[in-house]
Specification:
Helix content: 10-25%
Shape: globular
Order of helices and strands: HEEEEHEEEEEEE
Number of helices: 2
Largest sheet: 11 strands, mixed
Strand content: over 45%
Distance between the termini: 70 Å
Number of strands: 11
Radius of gyration: 20 Å
Structural class: mainly beta
Number of domains: 1
């Protein structure tokens, strides 16, 4: 009995691990197959970035199952990895290796009624700031690596019109 009491007291005095959650940001779809790259923002209990590098990516292997996921391989990170993350005033600024010319901002906002957070990614699309929803990469298979033909960036404008916007980027 005394041992159990000491154990319970020890557990009460130890700090709890910090709460954090991964919130979805946007996806990359490809012409190669149905698998997608999903980007997420890791936040703490106050909906703030949970580290100095809170944006991460993983595969959703839709060709196998909607629930099946996998980390990005070394080679996938070269194409779909995250570049130059900077956390400033609870917002993350970063770019993607596949689309270095577009800077992306990510942030989370609390929903007090539900007690949850929701995240958004924003970038310039057709010269206006928009909520980034997805990116589509059209590529042709090559001997060593695929050749990107074009990249379509889709989102919704952040102004009062909230209209869908799209921009095609060619390498």
């Amino acid at each position: 009995m005394q041992l159990r009491g000491i154990l319970l007291l020890t557990l009460l005095l130890l700090p709890y691990p910090a709460w954090s959650a991964n919130l979805p940001l946007f996806i990359i779809q490809r012409s190669k197959n149905a698998n997608e790259v999903h980007y997420q923002l890791r936040v703490d209990e106050r909906c703030r970035p949970a580290s100095d590098t809170p944006v991460s990516a993983f595969w959703r292997l839709l060709e196998h199952s909607p629930e099946k996921t996998a980390p990005l391989s070394f080679f996938a990170k070269m194409a779909y990895g995250i570049e130059d993350q900077r956390v400033i005033d609870h917002e993350v600024s970063f770019s993607l290796k596949a689309l270095e010319q577009k800077r992306i901002r990510a942030k989370a906002s609390p929903d007090p009624q539900l007690g949850t957070c929701s995240a958004t990614a924003q970038t310039a699309i057709q010269g206006q700031w928009a909520a980034l929803e997805r990116i589509y990469v059209q590529a042709e298979e090559g001997w060593l690596k695929p050749k990107v033909i074009y990249v379509d960036v889709f989102g919704t404008s952040l102004d009062a019109s909230a209209i869908p916007v799209r921009e095609r980027v060619t390498p």
